[in-house]
Amino acid sequence: MKYIYFITLLILASAALGSAQLDGLSSTCQNTLTQFLGDKNINNCFPFSAITPLATTTTIPDQNTLKTAADAICAKPKCSDNLVSTTLNQFKTSCQTDISNNQTLAQLVNVALSLYSPMRDSICYKNSTGGYCFIESEAAAEQILQSAPKGQNPAFTFAGAQKNQVCTPCNKAIFNTFFNYQNVNPSAFSDVQNATGKNINDVKGAIEGKCGQNFIDGKVGDSTEDPQKFQTESANQKSSAASLVANPVNFVVLVGSLLAML
Ligand SMILES: *[C@@H]1O[C@H](CO)[C@@H](O)[C@H](O)[C@H]1NC(C)=O
Ligand SMILES: *[C@@H]1O[C@H](CO)[C@@H](O)[C@H](O)[C@H]1NC(C)=O
Ligand SMILES: *[C@@H]1O[C@H](CO)[C@@H](O)[C@H](O)[C@H]1NC(C)=O
Predict the structure, then answer these.
(1) Bridge partners of 3?
(2) Entry's Pfam families (predicted)?
(3) Which of ligand 1's atoms lies nearest the C-alpha of 101?
């Protein structure tokens, strides 16, 4: 089983695209992707040229690489919804065969385009010490997983995790960004393996169980708030870690790093 980090996917997909790992795709799809890479409008808001040399799809990039990529992405204006949906439609038309044949790169780009908006927002949130939220969240998720007994169901691992590792201002910003996006675009996650509407609702319930009802209240909040203070404020919220165990798929969308299996 190979997990890749969901938010990082936007970075990974760009890296793969730019490093011309297009072999194996149909020629129609290859042509369209090559055209995207050279498209002036896309490059105005998405820095392929800065990101592509940084990473490969085979490993999760290290923190410095992620930071450099995030710096480049967040320095540009966000791509307009209109540009993203036009690009996505064009991609789906040209690469339909490749997507249904489970070509990894085609699926990666498909998800990266479908979830561009919340991913881009989430990549750019900063924490109280000026670091990137998603890097903080991924490091915490990794730590939680690594300290677990080998082979333990990840849902149990997270159920037992410290509240202050999961219920952070950064994760609140990231979770609400994704859930708000899903509310407005109910089919946004449909191309993500295992992320069905029911599974996503289970995840929501699980996070609320862990972090209290107000955690997923639709408000992104202030990711730069002091996590200590944030914990104190939310300390008296009802929570029951048990609901985290509801569904192993919780793991797929948990802790902002939102893992996807490819
Ligand atoms: C692609 O993956 C799906 C789900 O894992 C599977 O049902 C389908 O048979 C696969 N298609 C091909 C062409 O391998
Ligand atoms: C903020 O995020 C950075 C990583 O981007 C991390 O190294 C740092 O520890 C985080 N700060 C806090 C207070 O968690
Ligand atoms: C996704 O669902 C399939 C089929 O139900 C399952 O085999 C696979 O382990 C699931 N993946 C994750 C990451 O839970």
Answers:
(1) 261
(2) DUF7729
(3) 13
Name the residue with the closest Cα to ligand 3, atom 14.
Answer: 249
How high is the pLDDT of residue 97? 95
| pLDDT average, residue stretch 38-45 | 88
- How close is the Cα of 136 to the center of ligand 1, in Å? 34
Amino acid at 92: K
Q: Which ligand is nearest to the CA of 107?
A: 1
CA distance 30 to 24: 9
- Whether the CB-CB separation of 238 and 212 falls below 8 Å is answered with yes
Torsion sign over Cα 136, 139, 142, 146: negative
d(CA 255, CA 262) in angstroms, rounded, equals 18
pLDDT digits (tens, 9 = 90+) for 149-190: 776 666 566 666 778 888 899 989 988 998 898 889 888 877
- Residue indicated by tokens 């695209």: 17
* Neighbour count for residue 86 (Cβ, 10 Å): 13
* Residue 97, ligand 1, Cβ within 6 A: no
d(CA 112, CA 9): 6
Distance between Cα 101 and ligand 3 center (Å): 18
Q: Quote the pTM value.
A: 0.81
Residue with tokens 């029951």: 240
CA of 103 to the centre of ligand 1 (A): 10
